[in-house]
Amino acid sequence: MKLKLVLIFVVCLLTSACTDWIFRIDVPQGNFLDQDDVNKLRVDMTKEQVIFVLGNPVVQDSFDNDTWYYVYDMKRGMRKRGEDIRKELVITFKDNKIASLDGDFETPEDFNTPLEQ
User: Which residues cross the membrane (predicted)?
Assistant: First the structure.
């Protein structure tokens, strides 16, 4: 009986040591944006222009059509490939034109310079 318990304990110990051998995929979700994409945004851009530059937002506020959320999550399957990533960009519109940006990205230098029309 003791031999069986010792054998079970050793097998459990050996299999738990092999957990890093199992391949787990990274799971990306949302809109992947980088600073270059955000740098293309300007004040007074229309919603259609924003969709052309960034694509459709992940979330549009149900109670406020003038707030769009671009969210990107990367859940790493294995620790050795890095930490989990989460980035957000919140765009607020006024009269169907960009009024402000908020989130994890820097506001572009030329943001307050409207596009020529």
Answer: none
